[in-house]
Amino acid sequence: MNPNPLTEADLDRLEELLDAAVFGEESMRLDEIQAMLCAVISGPEPVMPSVWLPEALGPGIEKADDPQVGETIELLMRLNNDLAQALLSNETVSPILYPLDETGEAYDYAAWADSYIYGAGLIGDWYDFAGKHVDDLSELLEPMFLLNGVLKEDVEKSGERWFTPAEEERLVADIQENLPVIVQTLYNFWQAKRGAGTVRREDDKVGRNDPCPCGSGKKFKQCCGSPEKLN
């Protein structure tokens, strides 16, 4: 495999290959793959390419004898290595973003954040792995859930007050600007836990979807484990 970092031409080629007919429009977009890989690299335990490559490419990955599939896999492995090196070196990763419309005035941060969360789930529940540091992890992940709309949906379902449109706009803009720092901070969070010893699930830890131990009858994530209570 080519050990050199990806060039702009390589990224353009990868983007082109992801749209190739061999993948039948079932591969992820380049921005989504980048986000997923940032989470995969950052997480509590290693995620093998045999796990994330099929997620990125869909059924088309089974056509390993196709030259386009082989070239795509090589470029994706190099992308993975580039992102891992950047995060290890504490260099902020610039997110690849696609415009939401032809004006190019707004970008699809929601898709990026959604794919990051998806990538985090490939190894299991990050909240379970976080153990006694689940509060810290919830705070770090909150911006992702705000960008992909899940946080707003959960708050509105619970009947709690959401931000005014102006407040929401300012908050989202701030998160978008600081997304590279947020990604790096999440990586550093798990690196610190790895440095403190093997990350293990704690069986007695309340899961995000388990009943809240306070007895409210709500799920933990909608009660004492909600972002508002954790901050």
What secondary-structure arrangement, pairings included, does this model have?
Elements: H1 8-18, H2 30-42, H3 49-57, H4 67-88, H5 109-120, H6 126-130, H7 134-147, H8 150-157, H9 165-177, H10 179-195, H11 227-230
Question: Could you please describe the fold and organization of this structure?
Answer:
By secondary structure, the chain is mainly α. It contains eleven helices and no strands. The longest helix has 22 residues, at 67-88. It is globular, with a radius of gyration of 19 Å. It starts with 7 loop residues before the first helix and ends with a helix. Mean pLDDT is 87; it is low at 198-206 and 227-231.
Summarize the structure.
With 231 residues, the chain is an all-alpha fold.
Our count of helices gives: 11
Provide the helix percentage: 55-70%
Q: Roughly how many Å is the radius of gyration?
A: 19 Å
Proportion in β-strands? under 5%
